[in-house]
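I'd like us to work through together how a protein chain folds, taking it slowly. To get us started, please write out a protein record for me. Label the sequence line and the structure token line clearly, so we can match residues to local backbone shapes. Once you have written the record down, we can walk along the chain together.
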Amino acid sequence: MSNNLNLILKLGNPKLYEASSPLKKDELPEAREKAHAMAELVTEYRRRHGAGRAIAAPQIGYMKRMIVLNINRPQVLINPVLEDKSHEMIELWDDCMSFPNLLVRVRRHKSCRIRFLNRDWKEQSWWLEDDLSELLQHEYDHLDGILATQRAIDERAFALKE
């Protein structure tokens, strides 16, 4: 089996630091193909590393505002917008498919709302708390070219996974 995980851009790749563009409705056919591949990457990553729940399109070099969440089933979030971020913050060790052996200590909002279009171009809104709030903030950052390494709480906020 070929290693599809090589499709995921790694820390240091300049594309990871670029903001992505909104997806247009006429780009949906290509976006659906990319979303399918992204869902498979999450599954493969989880099988290989024991973690992984979502991926942002820029992580595979597709510079569009799209996230694929693949926990129980793949869900596509197109042109997401984060809103209503809580004042209460949580602190945690964050990891990323773009740097699979590194953990970064970050602060994220405990809760937030995310509005997006689904794969059928229908508007959706989810209220997120705790780990899902943190996860979607992480993926949303990728859409703006921001990595968890840039959100580290201080210079000692890094650890290698064993």
